[in-house]
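User: two proteins, same treatment. go.

Assistant:
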Amino acid sequence: MSAVSVTRIAPPSRSRRTTRSAVAACAVLGLLAACGSSDDPASSDDPADASQPTSAPATTVLATTVPSTVAATTTTAPPDTTTTTEVPASELTITVPTNIPAPAARTITELLAIERPLIIAHAGGDQELPHSTPYAYAMSALAGVDMLEMDVQLTGDGVLIVHHDDTTEGTTGVVGAVRDMTYAEIVALDNAWWHQPGCWPCRDDDASAYPLRGVRTGDTTAPEGFMRDDFAVARFIDIATAYPDHPLDIEIKVQRGADGETDPSTGIAAAAELARLIDELDRTDSVIVTSFNDDVVAAFRDLAPDVATSPGLNALTQWFLAGGKLHPSDLVLQVPPEYTGIEVMSPDLTARAHDEGYDVWVWPNGASQENPDFYQAMFDMGADGIIAGSPLAAVEAAGS
């Protein structure tokens, strides 16, 4: 694994700065779905504003290594002077605002000691921003979230990427199975192809409805202060390195095989690579890990026994229905409001969890729940965090 080099660049002019106090409520309760995940991004109160920066952030460019060549973007201020050139693959870049508010806690232990609801940006804030892109993580970090949530899985050539579906078409518009593609093939795709502010999944509209489509390929001007690579599918190491002070909530995905059936071995292989990278990056105390699949969680625990976890689906179900014992590494219950028609979230659940020493983070069931009123309802039930696809709306709820 080659080292990540950091190069500072002069920031474009900015009209205002987002302050930590203005976004402290943005602590979106960390969504790591032990029972599932919210796959349908919800609309924000002002999605047009949420999808693009109101002003250009001061930035740091992280140069990272990928296994092939990609097209990079050279920008000057203003960004409409953008030009495109071919550069070596090792020059893939991620833009990181230099004025990101320091998170309230770096370690999971410190995070759980905070006496207010946590704001965890689901996939970088996928209801307002393009799902799982470096741009989304940059904007949610700039907003002041407490934690970044992400899904990870392996490409065909063994690269651990930040990506939700086990296919690529859901965000890029290009059909392919992640397990059958190299990272070189995946990183070239437009990861904001289907991003439409306030509407997901909406894939039948005119191309003009997707304002960030084409930034990755150089056909659309990047938002001021950002670059083409900020709209690619990133590796886990890219995001983890870009945000060393932000705790990470990580869900290991299980992919389907050629027969269409889920293949737990793909999740176990991803767990092994994740454990290796967490150790390499010295992130043992600043991440929490889970998966729907209990075997994957168990495999990860064996490889990284000192890393905090949330229980898998079966273990959490047994705890919920029959009082089953959880693993000592499990510190947080990540739950939906309801699951398969059964009401999960309630004041009784949070009281029981707290009595047994667990925090409760809630991930909304769908887009209709991604709003300040719903977030506040979860806080009122005792939720310790909300895994929000709309971090700005979560800020509003936490600040009310």
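Protein 2:
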Amino acid sequence: MQFAKRLDPLQFNVFADMDRAKAQARAAGQNVIDLSLGSSDLPAAAHITEAIAHSLSDTSTHGYLLFNGTRDFREAAAIWYEQKFGIAVNPETEVLPLIGSQEGTAHMPLAVLNPGDFALLLDPGYPSHAGGVHLAGGQIYPMPLLAENAFLPIFEDIPTAVLAQSKMMVLSYPHNPTTAIAPVAFFEKAVAFCREHGLVLVHDFPYVDLVFDDRNSLIEAESGNEEEYRKLMAPSIFQADRDKSVAIEFFTLSKSYSMGGFRVGYAIGNSELIAALRQVKAAVDFNQYRGILNGAISALTGPQDTVRTSVETFRKRRDAFVNALQGIGWQVPVPPATMYVWAKLPEPWAQDSVKFCTQLVQSTGVAASPGAGFGKSGEGYVRFALVESPAILEAAVRKIAEFLN
């Protein structure tokens, strides 16, 4: 049986490969501590699940849900965004519901790229960003993210010939996997660059709330000066592109509201980009079950204390895991954001992250994600997801120490 050549670049997937390695470890009798997947282990809040449960008995929610039927959700998303960032959003033309933000990042290239066009992607970066470009027949120019550049790309290094064929740039900060945060000044530079070169600017923003630095200052500012509060948050791309001239931004309820399995996301952005993505989406699917969107509305409009509690939970886990790693002599930087630790591999593993992760899970049951799975510039690193309690994370580090020794 013959398949399309567009599948060829999709053969290597970091999550699928580690899933196989974990299954083999379990079959061999290992008790797996899975730190390879950024799926929150925290529960969705009760008011969210209650809204979904209440919807089940309403038979009017059981049919197909088309765009006009998502108006309440789009309005909730627009209000949430305006309250958080102080920038108005039109729910009719500038918001689009998605089945997780990954749907948006994977489908956006189909709306923007012609075969052979370049997309400028972060390296390392989230795998679906590259997957969508491959499916659209595009070419990828990887923008290396290096520690010495604060894991920010250097636009001046992009070759002129590549820029001439480029149609889009994809950014994502706070960044998975490096945990870096980009300042507004960087976004302003990115917006100006994209305007100059006629590029669509895509910003994937799943970790909008998972920021740890200056947390005490953030809590104080939250009840005081709004402008000071926004300075301490992870910035939105529209703080640099206020008229939404070139950008589209993707949000998810998977991280902030622990709704990963419900697959709820949305796009906010330039009305033409929203309309184009909507055309692609209409050819592929309708929308989620209305009851799930009712739960999402409850999340966005209801009490936000559970978001703050989740952030503090991941902060404590970060501190426990980093302290434990440093205690065994593995010096890693303290992540300012996200739910990950991005660790430079020690010798002799520094140039083979896949081998390190495969042998680690086979020998100890501790599963992590190899940096090479996120791009060429990710080689030499490993990503740990903070999706277990501090006690289990510390136990994982003890197993890692045995493996390293």
